Amino acid sequence: MALKVELKPHERIVIGGAVVRNGDARCRFVIEGNVPVMRERDIMTTAEANSPAKRIYFVLQLMYLDRDIGPHRDAFMTLVEEFMTAAPSAWPHINTITKHVLDGDAYKAIKATRALIDYEEELLSDVLRPERLRQNRDHGNEPARTGGRGPHESRHPHEDGSGSMGHRPL
């Protein structure tokens, strides 16, 4: 199946593992064959994967671009389990994403994860609303710090606190 692509000046795209950067002018071309393709605007860097849902997106992106779900399955399952523990209400989103992964369609899983990222942002914006924070403080419901970790220490040895997955292979 052929895919028609139009790139803006200096826009990048990943085609089958190669990064292609457009020149100074808009261009159009057709990709023939079955290779992973991701536009620059859809690619998430390790630095941008700074939330649980975005880390799920990042691992799915690796699955898609590598064309192999297997090497990243454990990381994906761990992230999904952690997300579900923190936000069980996200089950419909997680269920859809997981079904796509089990079907071997990482691209559809990535698309479905965009809704999970939006849902996560919605949950966080509700929790962090000033009136909600004030209400929690007034009722003694401030979250208690547990454990000996500092604010930048992760409970996961493969994370360095920056949102990056560190040097540990996924």
State which percent range the strand residues make up: 5-15%
Biggest sheet: strands, sense, closure? 3 strands, antiparallel
Domain unit count:
2
**Termini distance?**
31 Å
As a percent range, the share of helical residues equals 40-55%
Annotation field: number of helices: 5
Helix-strand topology string: EEEEEHHHHH
Structural class: alpha+beta
Explain what the structure shows.
There is one protein chain. The protein is an alpha+beta fold. The chain is 42% helix and 14% strand. It has five helices and five strands, in the order E-E-E-E-E-H-H-H-H-H. A hairpin with a 2-residue loop joins strand 2 and strand 3 (18-21). The radius of gyration is 19 Å and the shape is globular.
List keywords for this structure.
single chain; 170 residues; 2 domains; 3-stranded antiparallel β-sheet; two-stranded antiparallel ribbon; globular; disordered C terminus
Describe the secondary-structure layout.
Layout: E1 2-7, E2 12-15, E3 18-21, E4 27-32, E5 37-39, H1 52-66, H2 73-86, H3 91-102, H4 106-127, H5 130-138
Antiparallel strand pairs: 1-4, 2-3, 2-5
Helix pairs in contact: 1-2, 1-4, 3-4
Quick structural overview:
This protein has helices at residues 52-66, 73-86, 91-102, 106-127, 130-138, and strands spanning 2-7, 12-15, 18-21, 27-32, 37-39. By secondary structure, it is α+β, with helices and mostly antiparallel strands.
